[in-house]
Amino acid sequence: xxxTKKLAIVPFLLLVLVTVLSLxxxxxxxxxxxxxxxxxxxxxxxxxxAALVLIMTPGLAFFYGGMVRKxxxxxxxxxxxxxxxxxxxxxxxxxxxxxxxxxIGGVIGNPSTFMFMNGVLDGKPWSLAPTVPLAVFAxxxxxxxxxxxxxxxxxxxxxxxxxxxxxxICLFFIFIYAPLAHMTWHPDGLLFKLGVLDFAGxxxxxxxxxxxxxxxxxxxxxxxxxxxxxxxxxxxxxxxGLLWFGWFGFNxxxxxxxxxxxxxxxxxxxxxxxxxxxxxxxxDALRGKNLLPWVPALVQ
Length: 300
Hints:
This protein is mainly alpha-helical and 300 residues long. It is 65% helix and 4% strand. The chain has a two-stranded antiparallel ribbon. Strands 3-4 form a two-stranded antiparallel ribbon. The longest helix has 28 residues, at 73-100.
């Protein structure tokens, strides 16, 4: 058996072990959220934002799936969907602890702090999100952890086997995403103390995924067919719409409350995305791709 296939079995064995352990480990009783600092409006907005961020991952599946050849549409889309399954399990077991648990050297969190969500469901808030229950904050952050490795599939599509990608998800999450999230977003994190500002994942999500995608594109072999023949442009448009829609929760929810900062983030997202789409149309028109009949008249 090929070494890659052998290594790809590891994540499956880990998931089975986690499932078995969860059946036998004790759980603390869930207390009602009685903390007076909890704000119902902020909580409702963050719950909504978590759902909006999650819908971006299926949107990403459509976006990437529509751009590959027909024979690779399903496998490419599944690469995004499998992130929702694997990262969710890892997050509950020890991932949230690695990112937001008790600090270890400013680089990583103690994996036992919130293992199996211990102490997360008691209603107490997180220090940097003081008006929402810790559980809401934890699972809002989970959606960021899910979409980050999914973003890299654009560089992986038609280049790696599905089993190899599963191995990548586990390794990327444990050794890249979790430490970077801890260093950037935890009050005791190394980058946080240096004054690094990351409002909605510019460093933790986009830079980590972008660098990983660049490294993989440089390392992996070239596609056998250099001529790109998108399978479904309609999928690309649908994915773009879902990503556009979900980004209001991605950015607006990062304000950690229904407040003026969330409104500013939402407004900035709306204007920036609209301006970017319009600029793309103009530049394509300048390159001779007449997407809309009236665009050339504007640029002449």
